Amino acid sequence: MNPFKGSAEKFGKSAHEVGPYLGLGAQLAATIILMFFLGRWLDKEFETEPILTIFFACFGGFAGIYNFIKTVLQLNKKKDNVKND
Predict the structure, then answer these.
(1) CB neighbour class for 58 (10 Å; exposed up to 12, middle 13-18, buried from 19)
(2) Confidence (pTM)
(3) 3 belongs to a structural domain
(4) Position 15 in a domain
(5) Over the stretch 6-39, which tens digit does the pLDDT of each residue have?
(6) Fewer CB in a 10 Å sphere around the end CB: N or C, the chain?
């Protein structure tokens, strides 16, 4: 008797279910960081430090969180639809 029989299938199924969520954290962080550096560059160009840096960092945070929540809700809805079929 093999105690690991079926464990590879379970692991594969779990990885398949978790896969779409793995990149969301990196996407959120990348959005905030890119918007921060855009604001910093614009501040240097227009000599308005630190107004645009703060504005774009906050905007990046809100946009990143919005995208994160929207994506999670869509993935959960898709997952529920697959379960119900």
Answers:
(1) middle
(2) 0.78
(3) no
(4) no
(5) 777 888 777 777 888 889 999 999 999 999 999 9
(6) N
